[in-house]
C-alpha cells in the first residue's frame, strides 16, 4: 500500500489497541506492506484449497477443512487491515503500493467465494457460487468507477467486502457444525445466496449514488 493512499475503507478495528500494537511491531521490523498484501492472497488460496477438498473428505476431515477455510478468511482480512496501517501509520508505503493493495483483493474475493459452491456437493452449487463471486467483483468495480468519475469511493453495503467475508466465515463455521447431520452443503448454499443477493443490492445502491451525484453537478 502507498504511504498516502487516496482512499481507505473506514474500519473501526483500525483504532483497536491490539491492531495498533501489531502494526507497530511489524513496522519496527520493516515488514513491507506489499508483502502483507501478498500474504492476504496466500491465505485466500489456502482457504480456496480447503474448500475444494471438502467433497472428497471424510466427515471429520470436512469439519477441519471448513474451519480452516473460515480461519483463512479472517487471516486474509487481518492482512488487509495491517497492510494499510503499516504503510500509513508506519510510514513504509511505496509508489506501487496501491497495486499491491487492490489487486490481491480482487483475486481473493472470488477465491474465497467460488470454491464454496463446489464444497456444497450440490449440483447447482458451483453456478450459484460463480454468480456470487462475479457480483462481489462488480461491487468493487462500481466503487472504483465512482472514483474515476471524480467522486469519493463508496464503501456502503449491505454486502461490502467485510460483510461478505463475515457471511462466508459464519456460513463455513455453521456448515462445520452441521456436517454430522449432512446439512453442511445447504448451509453453504444459504451463505452464497446471502452474498449474491446482498452484493446485487450493494451494486445497485452504489450505481444509484453515482448517477445521482453526477446528475446533480
Automatic annotation (TrEMBL):
Keywords (A to Z) from UniProt: Membrane, Transmembrane, Transmembrane helix
Entry's transmembrane regions: 36-57, 130-151, 163-179, 185-204
A Gene Ontology molecular function term of the record: phosphotransferase activity, for other substituted phosphate groups
InterPro entries per UniProt: CDP-OH_PTrfase_TM_dom
Keyword NADP belongs to the record: no
GO cellular component, one term: membrane
UniProt record, GO biological process: phospholipid biosynthetic process
Protein's name in the database: Phosphatidylglycerophosphate synthase
Amino acid at each position: 500500500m502507498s504511504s498516502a493512499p487516496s482512499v481507505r475503507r473506514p474500519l473501526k478495528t483500525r483504532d483497536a489497541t491490539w491492531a495498533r500494537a501489531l502494526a507497530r511491531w511489524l513496522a519496527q521490523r520493516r515488514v513491507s506492506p506489499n508483502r502483507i498484501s501478498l500474504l492476504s492472497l496466500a491465505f485466500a488460496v489456502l482457504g480456496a484449497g480447503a474448500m475444494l477438498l471438502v467433497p472428497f473428505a471424510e466427515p471429520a476431515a470436512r469439519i477441519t477443512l471448513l474451519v480452516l477455510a473460515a480461519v483463512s478468511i479472517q487471516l486474509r482480512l487481518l492482512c488487509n487491515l495491517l497492510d494499510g496501517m503499516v504503510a500509513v501509520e508506519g510510514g513504509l508505503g511505496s509508489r506501487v503500493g496501491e497495486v499491491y493493495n487492490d489487486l490481491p483483493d480482487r483475486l481473493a474475493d472470488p477465491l474465497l467465494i467460488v470454491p464454496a459452491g463446489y464444497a456444497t456437493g450440490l449440483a447447482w452449487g458451483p453456478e450459484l457460487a460463480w454468480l456470487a463471486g462475479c457480483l462481489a467483483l462488480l461491487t468493487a468495480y462500481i466503487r472504483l468507477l465512482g472514483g474515476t468519475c471524480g467522486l469519493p469511493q463508496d464503501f456502503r453495503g449491505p454486502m461490502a467486502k467485510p460483510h461478505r467475508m463475515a457471511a462466508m466465515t459464519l456460513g463455513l463455521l455453521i456448515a462445520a457444525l452441521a456436517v454430522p447431520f449432512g446439512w453442511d452443503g445447504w448451509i453453504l448454499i444459504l451463505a452464497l445466496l446471502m452474498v449474491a443477493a446482498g452484493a446485487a443490492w450493494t451494486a445497485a445502491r452504489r450505481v444509484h449514488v453515482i448517477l445521482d451525484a453526477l446528475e446533480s453537478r
